[in-house]
Design a protein that fits this description.
single chain, 404 residues, alpha/beta, Aconitase, domain 3, Aconitase, Domain 2, 3 domains, 5-stranded parallel β-sheet, 11 helices, 18 strands, 19% strand
Length: 404
């Protein structure tokens, strides 16, 4: 059996499982984000649930609405607080950080575990070879009570990466290039096992970006091989029944996704010179210390273009503190950038800064659907933090030869 089958079998009390089987499995952790915790509270009330399976294994994270923009959302957060108090659940308050990043920092994504989250990017757990599964409110509520969930054993696709990309090409560029290359159904509801020498050189921060965007690939989950910061992981074996694909990144240049889909991605030179009004570096995809370091390096001694608003949101409070300690935050602020509290920030458009009508945005998020940041008339491009920093200085998308 391959890794996803081994994890599922162990949690189902079975010796073997096969793709297509629908099973009940025990779960190791469950976490909830503030956007749907009131809905989950209503489900508990409607069905008269009076307990959870293990309070120590459940967390509620206030990350989507760190700075409540209106009375309605502020009231929802208070409702979530009351729910946590009633059931004795651990609450991670606004400003602590994004649920997925905190789960990574706290060691919740243990290799071989099953972790459920009420957000689609729970798949980021695959960076540690944890089966992280994003689920809706009803399934999460059931798992909180029962300590188990149901799933269908996915088929496996082994995606082998060969070659070495150009300088300044990042793991984010790899994901955008993969989305541009493969059709939408290639990875649909499948377990993706990434392999290849270049992937093994990635830091934990960079590898987490790859795992995070498994859902944009349409995958059920994705597993990363051992690498820097995750040496304890085992090499992934896809198994004889897996589909095998190869992706050559030899000479790959940075990519940019044009509006309004992550898969609408092209080599950066194809969009060179397009003006940008708003640069956002953040989200659970690219808000880690490595991302802050890269932006700070490029901005050191420079100024953000006078027409551009640069906003940066760290993925956790610890990342923010480390960014200040190492001088990254100061370099960004001195250059004209704005720093917000840790959390999801502007990614989902429910809190500021909301772009103005007609603004053209360059973001490091995972999605650029129309209206994603709160304004349907503000088109969003996606790129890496490296490209974002250069864009903030220039006021337009750079070409590959202008990156440094």
């Amino acid at each position: 059996m391959n890794i996803v089958e081994q994890i599922i079998a162990a949690h189902a009390g079975r010796e073997r499982v096969s793709p297509g089987e629908i099973l009940s499995v025990a779960v190791d952790r469950v976490y909830v984000q503030d956007g749907n915790s009131p809905t989950i509270a209503k489900i508990f009330a409607r069905h008269g649930f009076e307990r959870v399976f293990d309070r120590e294994k459940i967390g509620v994270f206030f990350d989507h609405s760190v700075l409540p923009p209106n009375i309605g959302i502020a009231d929802r957060l208070r409702e979530a607080e009351r729910f946590c108090a009633a059931f004795g659940l651990t609450m991670y308050r606004a400003g602590e950080g994004i649920s997925h990043q905190l789960a990574l920092e706290m060691g919740w994504f243990e290799p071989g575990s099953i972790v459920l989250g009420s957000d689609s990017h729970t798949c980021m757990g695959g960076v540690m070879q944890s089966l992280g599964l994003g689920m809706g409110a009803s399934d999460i509520a059931a798992a909180m009570v029962l300590g188990e969930t149901w799933l269908q054993v996915p088929e496996t696709v082994c995606l082998h990466v060969t070659g070495t990309p150009k300088p300044y090409t990042s793991s984010k560029d790899l994901l955008l290039a993969v989305l541009a290359r493969f059709s939408a159904d290639t990875f649909l509801y499948k377990s993706v096992q990434w392999t290849g020498p270049w992937l093994e050189t990635l830091s934990l921060d960079s590898a987490a970006t790859v795992a995070n965007m498994a859902v944009e690939m349409g995958a059920k989950n994705a597993f990363l091989p051992p690498g820097r910061g995750r040496e304890q992981l085992r090499p992934t074996e896809a198994g004889a029944d897996a589909e095998h694909l190869e992706f050559d990144i030899g000479g790959l240049m940075p990519f940019v996704a044009k509006p309004h889909a992550p898969s609408n991605a092209v080599p950066i030179d194809e969009v060179r010179g397009q003006h940008i009004d708003y640069v956002y570096v953040g989200s659970c995809t690219n808000s880690r210390l490595e991302d802050f370091a890269e932006v700070a390096r490029i901005l050191e001694g420079q100024k953000v273009h006078p027409r551009v608003t640069l906003v940066m949101t760290p993925g956790s409070k610890q990342i923010l503190l480390d960014a200040w300690k190492r001088g990254y935050a100061e370099a960004i602020v001195r250059a004209g950038g704005l720093l917000t509290p840790a959390g999801c920030g502007a990614c989902l458009g429910t809190q500021g800064p909301v772009p103005a009508t007609g603004d053209r945005i360059l973001s490091t998020m995972n999605r650029n659907f129309q209206g994603r940041m709160g304004n349907r008339d503000a088109p969003i491009f996606l790129a890496s933090p490296h490209v974002a920093a250069h864009t903030a200085i220039r006021g337009e998308l750079p070409g590959a030869e202008e990156l440094s």
